[in-house]
Structure formats: structure tokens, C-alpha cells
Request: fold
Amino acid sequence: MDGIVTGVAQMGAIQKADTRETVVARMTELLREAKARGCGFVVFPELALTTFFPRWVYDRGDAELEAFYEDTMPGPATRPLFDMARDLGIGFYLGYAEKAGAKRFNTAILVEPSGRIAGKYRKVHLPGHAEPDPSRLGEHLEKRYFDVGDLGFPVYETMGVKMGMCICNDRRWPETYRVMGLQGVELIALGYNTPTGLGEPYQAAAQANFHNSLTMQAGAYHNACWVAAAAKCGVEEGFPMIGQSMIISPLGEVVAQAATLEDELIAARCDMKMARYAKTEIFNLARHRRPEAYRPIVERVGAGDLIQPDRKQMGLDDA
Ligand code: ING
Reply:
């Protein structure tokens, strides 16, 4: 097969007291199952080594906050994961909190079966808030604890695939996929921690899974690429997070989906011929895109004034 059997290692809850060692042991079990199912590549979740700490209020620099970040990758606690992956001949995507000098990033890496880190990504779309607000049912303080990613959306040639990455909230923004689509990406790996029940209005809480699949299926379909997405889910310290890890084909179909809110491996044969086919017709970007019509997408941050065509050009009689 021209491609790779991809596993998604969904992880259940990680509580605040759970050590990295116990978490890595769970991850190595998932790697073993991935091997048994013929996987050559496995996707782990966002911030996969600890509980989702942006739900609490800290000051930057607090010792307890600093303990959630990794000084080095791999480090003493994660070396067994790298060793197991190398022994099994499996590459993987790993999400973790990165210390980079004075900067703090929500980061993901692509690790090859040899243990070589093929590339890094730092989360660009940081959701939530920088300042706590006690009126909220729960906090989501990623803007407080992470700097905006400074690596763009790179695509790496690795494991025989043009592979890109993103992290959680990135998956809700079409620009994320399109920047990688414009590099010919064939498979996007991503992890997420998506809390629900924080007082969202309307039916947003009930629609959390719908929005999860909607946005990733659209991204895969619009950019003719595979999407392999791993949730960290279940109830962490009383806060529920969605599961629904899934693998989506370049034609937008969900080909594998998790059924639990626990540690669970799903897998699929990701054939890159399908991705390449899907790039030749409907989403042949070079043939069909018209960037001159898209300028506001790059020139504007938020919505601005209406853009009115010339009435004469529109052939309207009151020109
Ligand atoms: N989590 C959430 C996500 O984008 C969120 C934040 C939750 C946004 C619910 C909208 C609705 O999936 C992270 N970590 O980005």
C-alpha cells in the first residue's frame, strides 16, 4: 500500500496526581496494541502527559504550573515511550507543554520509528482567555499559559507521507488545513482536549461531538487529506471532555471512530493514492483557486467594513 496504517491512541482521563510514569506506561500499552494491529504511525492527544491544567488559575512562573511543562523531549519520563516506539518500529505524534527558554508553547512533534524527531508544531489558535473570570463555570486559560505558536503550519516528508500537524482548537479554523493543503499535505495528525459543559449557550454542549466531526471532516475533504485525531477525554478532576477520536479519509468520510471515553486504539489503512486522487479533481487547488478574490482572509483579523463592488462594473443602471 502506498501509505501507512495509522493508529489513533485515544487516552482517557489523566488526573492531577497521575505521574508521567504511569501515563507513559498507558501509552506504551497503546503502542503495543498498535503494533499488533499493524500500525506504522500512532497519534497521541494534545498535552498527553498531564491533566489539562489550563482549567485552573495560576500565575505564570508558579512552581505548580511550571511542573506541567517538559524541560526536554524526550526527558527521563518520556524516554521509555521513545524506546518502545523504536523497538516496535512505530512513529508517533505527541502533544505536550513545551518550555522554550522564557516561552511556553502547546506543542506537538512527529517522531520517526528511529526516534528522530522529524518536526515540531506549536499551537497557533489559543482558545479561551488570559484572565480568569470567577463568573465562568470553568476556566480555559490557554492564552494565559501558552505563547502563540511561532512555527506556522509546516508539513514534513516523513514515513513516506507528507505529514502535517495541528492541535485542538486549530482544527476549528479552515485556515489551518488550507495552509497545509497548499503544501500538498496528505495526512494531518492532531490531538485535542475539548471540555464540555462550561455553560455554553444554546445547545453547544450537546453539539460538541457534532462540531468535532463537522470541522475535521470539512478540513479533510476541502484539502483532500487524511485526518487522524486523538482525544484525551473522560472526566478529569470533575471536568468532562469529549472523546470521539477518529480517522477521516481525504473524501471526508469517518473510517474509524472511538467508542469509549477511555484509553482506546483505533486504526485505519491510510492510502495516499486516495489523497492524491482527491487532489486531482474537485480540490485541485492550482486549477481552481482564485487568491485575488480571497485578499481579506490575510489582510483582516476580524470582520471589517463591507466590501462593495463598483456598481458600474456590476452593470447596474444607477451607476
Ligand atoms: N480545547 C477546545 C477546542 O477547541 C473549545 C476549546 C472547547 C473551544 C469548546 C470551543 C468549544 O476543542 C482546546 N484545547 O483547544
Observations:
- Residues 29 and 97 are 22 Å apart (CA to CA).
- The chain has one domain: 3-299.
- The radius of gyration is 20 Å.
- Residues 3-299 form a domain with the Nitrilase/N-carbamoyl-D-aminoacid amidohydrolase fold (CATH 3.60.110.10).
